[in-house]
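input
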Amino acid sequence: MSTASARLPEGRYGRSSDEAADRKLKITGAVLGALLLALVGYFAYHYVVKSEISAQVVAFDASASAVQVHLEVHKDAGASGYCTLRSQAASGSEVGRADFRFSGPATEIDKVVTLRTTARGTTAELLGCHSG
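output
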C-alpha cells in the first residue's frame, strides 16, 4: 500500500501562502529597519552638529564656602549660553549649584569661576551646557 503525498505539485497552483507571507515580512522588516536607521542618524546629527557649546572642568580648588572652578568652554563664534556646575560634600549632598553665562565672539573661553557653597564642597561637576 502506498501513501499519498501531502505536498502540492511544484508550480501547479502558484505561490503558497507561506512564501507570500515571508515576502511581506521581509519587505516590512526592511522598511522598518531603514526608518530606524534614519531616526538614529537624525538624532546623532543633531547631538553632534547642533552642539554649539561644550565645556570641561580642568581643575577645581575647594574652600569652606566656595569652589574655584577652572572651566574650559568651546563654542561657536557669536553663540551665547550657559553652563551649569554643582558641588557636593563628602556625604554626597549637594552644597552648591550655579549657572555661568558665556557670550561674545571668542570660540574658546578659559575662565576660573567661583561656585558659592553652603558647606565645604569636595567636587566640581559640570552638569551640562546649553545655548540661549
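quick obs: The beta strands are 53-62, 66-75, 81-88, 94-102, 108-116, 125-131.
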